[in-house]
């Protein structure tokens, strides 16, 4: 492997050990306390000793693995993303495929896909990390990666835990969730992928083609949750646009509005119901599951506490006004607190919340355009 690494560009060579606290913590205050507590939870279920962060070469995926049995859906919204018309674009597009080693073990090999325009000037450019939704993979995001690359960004996508190249079959993600519920040894829902994203930021800031002060992050649905928490945990993500992901987990439990989110990974909750001796899934089952697989997700790390700590970095939250998985009333408190945080920081225009009327759990072309404009303005 050392020989293979020697053939990689200088910015892709292995880097040394990584300590998240050195990068994610502010000097003092509530934001620093949040990040310290959150990183402590992330570290609590690392099952193997720390390993040096490194990269290994990979090949393009010819046959991406999509999980579940439902239809993949349309890429129409992604394909509508603004592109710059470039003659012979395909020939000028550079593609990189790597594995980023974030910890020992199979799930510690993060598949990374990077698209950018070939650049002889070697100037540093802004970069954006894109995160896929549940049951999909990084290759699904290619229309967005190409669109942003055409406009001068370095576009990055990864497979989240138990997805894409990190999955073995069509039930890998659900199987991992059920295993986490029963064994309490991993956090496949949101948290473990956020660990990878903290390490990804470490790698991206070392690349000579990326401006480390201009790294954005966005994602759809599960990817929106990943983007939200990664930006809260790591200030190196300088601009964030979570799409149909931000929600109030505790609010949903207290107001009996948890069904939409539960339905997205229902086999997990059915197994928990059986294990708890319940006839139906109820709020107790939901709370017990969150406590087990994502500690404090419905308390100290919930949106009223985690979203405001992104201030004063530019933050755009995009949701559907009729989204059952991210109910609009459950966002009143986090949006209000976040708006106040940006006001107090002196940057009220760096936060924006848009709930698109008449839209459920769906990323629309309008959302894609809003995200594109936001990144163009702040990156």
TrEMBL record:
It comes from the Eukaryota. Pfam families: Abhydrolase_6. Residues 128-364 form the AB hydrolase-1 domain. Residues 1-17 form the signal peptide. Gene3D superfamilies: alpha/beta hydrolase. InterPro entries: AB_hydrolase_1 (IPR000073), AB_hydrolase_fold (IPR029058). The keyword Metal-binding does not apply. Keywords: Signal. This is Uncharacterized protein LOC109718677. It comes from Ananas comosus. The lineage of its organism: Eukaryota, Viridiplantae, Streptophyta, Embryophyta, Tracheophyta. The gene is LOC109718677.
């Amino acid at each position: 492997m050392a020989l293979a690494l020697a053939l990689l560009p200088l910015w892709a060579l292995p880097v040394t050990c990584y300590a998240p606290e050195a990068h994610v913590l502010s000097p003092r205050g509530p934001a620093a306390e949040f990040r310290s507590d959150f990183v402590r939870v992330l570290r609590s279920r690392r099952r193997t000793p720390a390993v040096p962060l490194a990269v290994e070469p990979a090949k393009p995926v010819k046959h991406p693995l999509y999980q579940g049995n439902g239809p993949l859906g349309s890429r129409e919204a992604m394909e509508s993303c603004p592109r710059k018309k470039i003659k012979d674009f395909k020939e000028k597009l550079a593609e990189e495929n790597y594995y980023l080693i974030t910890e020992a073990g199979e799930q510690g090999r993060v598949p990374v896909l990077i698209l950018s325009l070939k650049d002889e000037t070697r100037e540093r450019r802004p970069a954006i990390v894109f995160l896929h939704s549940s049951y999909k993979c990084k290759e699904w995001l290619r229309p967005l990666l190409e669109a942003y690359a055409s406009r001068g960004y370095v576009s990055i996508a990864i497979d989240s835990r138990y997805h894409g190249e990190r999955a073995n079959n069509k039930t890998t993600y659900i199987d991992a969730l059920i295993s986490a519920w029963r064994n309490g040894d991993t956090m496949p829902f949101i948290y473990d992928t956020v660990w990878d994203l903290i390490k990804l930021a470490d790698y991206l800031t070392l690349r000579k083609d990326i401006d480390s002060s201009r790294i954005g992050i966005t994602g759809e649905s599960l990817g929106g949750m990943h983007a939200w928490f990664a930006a809260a945990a790591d200030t190196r993500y300088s601009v964030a646009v979570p799409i149909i992901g931000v929600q109030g987990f505790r609010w949903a439990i207290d107001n009996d509005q948890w069904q939409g989110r539960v339905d997205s990974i229902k086999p997990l909750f059915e197994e928990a119901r059986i294990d708890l001796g319940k006839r139906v899934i109820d709020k107790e089952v939901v709370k017990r599951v969150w406590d087990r697989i994502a500690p404090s997700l419905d308390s100290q790390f919930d949106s009223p506490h985690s979203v405001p700590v992104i201030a004063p970095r530019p933050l755009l939250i995009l949701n559907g006004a009729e989204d059952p998985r991210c109910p609009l009333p459950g966002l009143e408190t986090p949006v209000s607190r976040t708006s106040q945080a940006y006001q107090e920081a002196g940057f009220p225009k760096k936060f924006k919340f848009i709930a698109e009327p008449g839209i459920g759990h769906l990323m629309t072309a309008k959302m894609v355009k809003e995200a594109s404009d936001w990144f163009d303005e702040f990156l």
